[in-house]
Q: What sequence folds into this?
């Protein structure tokens, strides 16, 4: 094991700023507006539902060194530019160039599964390279073992679709049509692939134009200084918040993924943060993931880019402040990142990665746990968003059955906070809701039920967010189902007296003689016309002792369908009959207050192990 320190270039030494505070805010607004305009273009012109409806795309702006200056509120960004620079040095780049890759291992986890395509373009002012813009989107199908490319069945990244190393897609305005033709030929749905790539390329071209306008208006030196100030602003804020959260010493936390879909697991993510005094007397913050379990045979491995822990912590500490900018200041706030090759967060090639979203979501929960190991303030754990993929045919009565591919990311409950309930039915970034009308109009299914899952939110002074129930009637002639649910055996932990959230489940033909339970991480379940598919997703952990939740709030939860009357009595000590609160019975029940411990996962524990 070799410690891995950040490969990002250091910030420039302190000098008198060229960009004054007013101009800085003007430039910040202009480049953030550019980012949003790029994203709007992708959303309005992409073809596949996963991009157009789910919004599974991101854009970002980088300074002339390739350091992220403005990114999205997505905690999975790593060092996206270095993979290109290693093959195409900056000094060789020209106006009109465009670079492309999806190589997860070659990019050291800058992109984490092969469906995500990254396009990067330089921005010039005259002969001077001033910045880079990037667009990134999840393509519905890029070949591989099954339609959709990601599958719990995969045991090698080669089964997850075509791999694109850093490639010059456009050379001074001339498109490499042959490379695109090879890529699209590997898709089972080439029309979608072609349309999505056109949308992505157009967004980058727009970004180059807009950033060049900003540089022309303010001058290259002023814009360069503005981006450096924004980076330093974020880095300073994150380091200050790290110091406020962690005293000197080492803090550890772990969490578990249930399975890899191949009978293995659980797999533990064990992280540590150390704050120490450096040789120069300055604080050093070290992130260490070397004690995490070995990589999995199945596709739940995550290549954690060295920039990701700082990016995720940075987003937490920024707290959605609109005056701040999401950028590489978060990763630059961490002095050293230590990873172990062969672990579940640094797997060896060619381990499969397609279901890495489960590990990514557990990673965020472990970071919350680390913060709570310090001075606290982070939410309880959340469920990992659920993905279901249906592949099949419909319309055989016409004589020409058509293939379809439905990939539906489904919302879950998030963890309670120390000031508010967890959020119900959260669709994680890039996993927005498919409206009922869209689903039924575009796919051979009928949605029979869609709502929250009662009692899925962890009980607490602040209740965990609830999961979702979606019940599909299959109208296709035939279909094969892949499903991704986690947190069944190891549900999201509660904190500070709060209890763990509920796990998810998937059932075919519920409440009938043909009922069958489906493994929560599996592929190849056969469905036929008329089958009913019921999916329940998990909820978030609670926070604070459940008996401290006002009885009136519990009554509201029961009336709203978030908590059952039975759970209100069992977990909250609140007696409700005929939708009315029995205050006397509640007072008697709450007089016998159960003891708690700091964390809860099925039972109260001092720490997760």
A:
């Amino acid at each position: 094991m070799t410690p891995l320190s950040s490969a990002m270039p250091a910030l420039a030494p302190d000098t008198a700023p060229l960009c004054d505070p007013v101009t800085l805010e003007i430039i910040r607004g202009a480049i953030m507006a550019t980012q949003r305009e790029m994203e709007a273009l992708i959303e309005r012109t992409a073809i596949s539902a996963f991009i157009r409806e789910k919004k599974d795309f991101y854009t970002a702006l980088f300074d002339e060194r390739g350091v992220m200056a403005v990114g999205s509120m997505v905690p999975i960004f790593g060092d996206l530019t270095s993979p290109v620079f290693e093959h195409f040095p900056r000094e060789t780049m020209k106006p009109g160039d465009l670079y492309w890759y999806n190589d997860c291992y070659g990019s050291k986890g800058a992109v984490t599964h092969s469906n995500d395509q990254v396009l990067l373009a330089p921005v010039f002012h005259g002969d001077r390279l001033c910045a880079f813009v990037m667009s990134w989107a999840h393509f519905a199908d890029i070949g591989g073992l099954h339609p959709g490319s990601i599958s719990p069945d995969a045991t090698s990244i080669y089964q997850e679709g075509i791999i694109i190393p850093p490639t010059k897609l456009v050379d001074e305005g001339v498109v490499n049509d042959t490379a695109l033709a090879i890529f699209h030929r590997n898709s089972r749905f080439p029309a979608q692939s072609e349309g999505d790539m056109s949308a992505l390329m157009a967004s980058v071209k727009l970004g180059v134009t807009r950033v060049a306008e900003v540089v022309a208006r303010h001058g290259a030196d002023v814009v360069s200084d503005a981006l450096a100030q924004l980076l330093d602003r974020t880095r300073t804020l994150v380091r200050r918040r790290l110091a406020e959260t962690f005293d000197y010493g080492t803090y550890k936390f772990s969490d578990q993924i249930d399975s890899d879909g191949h009978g293995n697991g659980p797999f533990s993510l064990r992280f540590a943060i150390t704050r120490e005094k450096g040789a120069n007397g300055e604080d050093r913050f070290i992130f260490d993931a070397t004690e995490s379990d070995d990589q999995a045979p199945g596709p739940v491995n995550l290549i954690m880019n060295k920039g990701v822990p700082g990016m995720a912590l940075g987003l937490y500490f920024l707290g959605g402040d609109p005056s701040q900018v999401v950028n590489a200041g978060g990763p630059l706030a961490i002095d050293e990142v230590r990873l172990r090759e062969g672990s579940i967060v640094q797997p060896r090639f060619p381990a499969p990665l397609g279901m890495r979203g489960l590990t990514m979501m557990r990673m965020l929960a472990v970071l919350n746990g680390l913060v709570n190991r310090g001075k606290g303030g982070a939410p309880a754990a959340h469920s990992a968003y659920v993905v279901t993929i249906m592949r099949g045919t419909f319309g055989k009565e016409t004589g020409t059955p058509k293939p379809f591919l439905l990939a539906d990311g489904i919302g879950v409950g998030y963890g309670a906070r120390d000031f508010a309930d967890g959020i119900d039915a959260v669709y994680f970034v890039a996993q927005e809701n498919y409206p009922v009308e869209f689903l039924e109009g575009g796919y051979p299914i009928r949605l029979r039920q869609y709502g929250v899952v009662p009692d899925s939110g962890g009980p607490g002074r602040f209740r965990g967010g609830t999961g979702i129930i979606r019940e599909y009637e299959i109208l296709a002639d035939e279909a094969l189902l892949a499903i991704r649910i986690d947190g069944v055996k190891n549900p999201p932990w509660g904190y500070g007296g709060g209890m763990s959230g509920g796990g998810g489940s998937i059932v075919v033909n519920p409440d009938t003689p043909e009922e069958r339970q489906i493994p929560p991480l599996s592929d190849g379940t056969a469905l036929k016309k008329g089958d009913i598919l019921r999916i329940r997703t998990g909820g978030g952990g609670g926070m604070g002792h459940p008996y401290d939740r006002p009885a009136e709030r519990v009554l509201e939860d029961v009336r709203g369908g978030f908590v059952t009357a039975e759970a209100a009595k069992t977990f909250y000590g609140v007696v409700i009959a005929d939708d009315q609160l029995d205050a006397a019975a509640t007072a008697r029940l709450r007089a016998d207050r159960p003891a708690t411990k700091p964390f809860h996962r099925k039972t109260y524990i001092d720490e997760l192990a």
Notes: The radius of gyration is 25 Å. Residues 245 and 375 are 5 Å apart (CA to CA).
